[in-house]
Structures are given as C-alpha cells and as structure tokens.
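Reply to thread "Modeling small-molecule complexes from scratch"

Following up on the discussion above, here's a worked example others can learn from. I took a protein sequence and the SMILES for pyridoxal-5'-phosphate and predicted the complex. Inputs first:
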Amino acid sequence: MQIMYRSTRDSQLRATASQAVLQGLAPDGGLYVPETIPSFDGSWEELSKMSYRETARRVMRLLLTDYTEDELQSCIDRAYDDKFDTEKIAPLREANGTEYLELFHGATIAFKDMALSILPHLMTTAAKKNRITDEIVILTATSGDTGKAAMAGFADVPGTKIIVFYPKDGVSVVQERQMVTQRGANVHVVGIHGNFDDAQTGVKNIFRDPDMNRKLKEHGMRFSSANSINIGRLVPQIVYYFYAYGQLVAEGRVKPGDVMNITVPTGNFGNILAAYYAKQMGLPVAKLICASNENKVLVDFFRTGAYDRNRDFILTSSPSMDILISSNLERLIYRIAGEDSSVTARLMKELSSDGVYCITEQMKEGLSDFYGNYATEEETAQEIKEVYLRSGYVIDTHTAVASKVCRKYREETGDPVPMVVASTASPYKFLRAVITAIDPAKAEGSDFDLIDVLRDISGVKIPLAIEDIRTAPVLHDCQVDPQDMEKEIGRWLGLD
Ligand SMILES: *Cc1c(COP(=O)(O)O)cnc(C)c1O
C-alpha cells in the first residue's frame, strides 16, 4: 500500500514520503502527516527476535513506501553501524523496577542520533529519486542536541550544507563545546542572543520567506529541515518503541500481546509523537506519559485543553526540554480534530497571533491515551540521586524528569503495567547538574574536570564523543541577534 503525506493545514497539499522528507515543512507551514497509518505486519514473537536494523526495516518500509527495499536497506545499514557503541543500538536497562530505553549510544550521545544518523541518507536518496540537482541547505534550530547530531550526520555529505542556530546562553557547556568544535566544510554554527523559541520561530519564518527562497533558487539551492517536524526524523523514532517491546518479550518481562506504558521526557513533542504513532500501528501500548520540566505548557494543555505559551520561559537543568512551542503537537491536534485541516490551521493561527488556543471537549477525548505531569528542578535532582543510591545507575537530567514523572504517575494511579522510560541523553552530557545532584562536594572544577569524576561515580566508560571534545579545537564563534539570522544565512551562503 502506497502511503501519501498531506499538510496538517491543507489536505490538498500532498506529497510522497520522499518528497515530504526533502521539503521538511509543507509549503503552507503545516506539517506532513501520513494519510493513513499502516499496521505492523509481524507477530510479537517475530519482533522479539529481530535485530535493531531488521526492526527498522520492518517498521520504516510501512511508512516510507516510495523508497525501494534496497534504498531503505542501504540507508539503514549506513546509519545503524559502529557509530553506535553497542550492537543493540538502543539497549534496555532495568533499574528499580523501571526499564530505561537507552537512546544515547550514537555519535553525539543524545537520542537525536537515532533519527539524525539516518536522515541524511533518506534525504540524499530522496533527492536522487526526485531528480533534484539543487544543493540542499539544512536549516536547524536547536535546544542543544539536535544541532550537534544533525551536523554529525550531514558533515561533508556531498550536495548538502547545514546551518545550526542555538541559544547562546541556553545550552550546557558540553553541548556548546560539541557544536563549536564540529568539523566539515559544509557546516555553520551560530549562537543567537535569545532562547530556543526565538531560534525556532526565526528558522520557520526564513523557511517561508519568498525573497529568500527566490535567491536560493537563483543560486541552485533549496532549504530543508533536520528538525523533528521532518517526517524523516519522526519515522525512524517509531522504530525503537517496537524494538523496546521486542526486547521486553524476549526477556520474558511481558507476554506477547500484553501492554506496556511509555514515559517520554518531552520538548518539541517529537519523541512522544513517535510513540503515539507506534501505538496507532498496533504496538501494545496503554498509556503515553508526557513528562515536562518547569516549562510545563503541555501538562496544562492535557489538564485543561488550553495551550497557552504566554508565560515566562524558564532555563532549567534539562535545556533540551526548555520549549514553549512544541511544534509536533500540531500533528496530534490534527488527529484529534478528526483530520480536519481547517480546524488545525485555525488553531495554529491563533497560537501564532495570540499565543494561545483551546480545543473542544470532543477533541479532548482524543487525548485519553496521554497522561501529563512535570518535575521541578529540585525533584529532578532528587530523582537522579535516588535512582543512583538505589541501583547505582546514573541518569541524565532529562531522563530524570521522565523518571520522576513516571513515579508520580504510578503513585497516583497504582497502574502495575511495565514501564519503559525513554532515556534521552548520556549523563556525560550534563555533568555538573548530574554530579551536583549526587554529591555537591564533588562538583568542583571545570566541566572538563568533571568528566573523570562522573566516570568514578558511575563506573561507565567515558564515551568517545566526550573524549573527542576534550582536545578538539574551537572552529566556530559566530553570534547574532534573532532578527539578523536571515542576514547571516545570506552572508554565509554568498547569496548577496
Ligand atoms: C530533544 C530532546 C528531548 C525532547 O525531545 P522532543 O522530541 O523534542 O520532545 C529530550 N531529551 C533530550 C536529551 C533531547 O535532546
């Protein structure tokens, strides 16, 4: 069955999977969604025997239907190789009666690697299929992890350039160092004097700016996106929820067909949306637990049905979740609006003009799969310490937000269903916050001194990504105000 994609804001705007991957955002600013959601076509026993690559093939072929089997296989083989430091790619680790799905074994030690190691291959394959000869310019806003993972994926990939904008004062020391040391003749990194929402809004506006697009065209270039609005990011993220379930079956933790719950530390709503799609494809998932930090706009939305971004933006110890406009929520809105693009378009317009929209009671019923809650900064730190004291396992700040919210959910509901918590970053990425939570007396010296401290506390080998940045030279130091992002792009691409 051929699956077509259409814009959440205009059902007339349709694209094949490969066209949607190339475009990133639909021309009207909407997000591409599959017109039908296919069902997984294997048994749970079969799934439990599949490797990560095999699971990826079986899931992705259902959604990226205009890629040939060979094309898909080649993308998968090039993505999920020894860039990952474990054969399992996404192993499950049990601690304290909770299953942590470790999504940080790739090149940049955050879960963004799961999708961004395959996106460049999906995109260059899509360009060939659609006979696109323009150079593809990837424009990305990052809250810290996407930027590095995208650059690592696209660095020196022929026919592409990549520009990353990050909030200059809104990322961790390790995150910033990872980005400014990125090698590759086709990469450009820019710190902006603003927060992630400023960066994301800027990128979205530049994407749609007719003048900019005309200039690009004249220079034989076109924009695409590596942000999680691209279905080429979303589809690979569905895979690991299937893989996690297969692992639970293989280890006898669930009987084939019995349900699991999933908790996801959420920012732009991409990762948890992938879990929702997995459920729609037939994966036995009961509840989807959406965990926020103090930027709890989603928690309030699940409780009241009002999405209201008019509030202070709080910088937390889980910076990749410091987001007030969760872009991918639009895809869920579209779904619970009965796939009505005019309703979605109206709500998104209200969001951009007033910063707030409300859904109807009927739409609210469509949210019954979800539970939302949040963890304060103090609770997050306590959770890191508690998990460590009870099991010796060290989790990062984002995973700790999820772990705490998972605990709140269980205490509130008494739900005994096995729980998978998406573990989205290595604790090595957030050294100071993690060590301070466990033992403040040890959190002294520079962030780079703390690398060895964490190794001693956790007993986990220092990841290659961290070894690298200790010595790598700083190659980028560009900074601009949000209103100058477009100018900077023009300058670097030589458009003027
Ligand atoms: C990006 C990120 C998140 C949030 O994921 P979304 O898909 O944006 O909801 C959570 N944790 C870490 C470590 C991340 O990098």
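What I'd highlight from this example: The domain at 92-109+232-463 is CATH 3.40.50.1100 (Rossmann fold). The chain has a mean pLDDT of 96. Questions welcome below.
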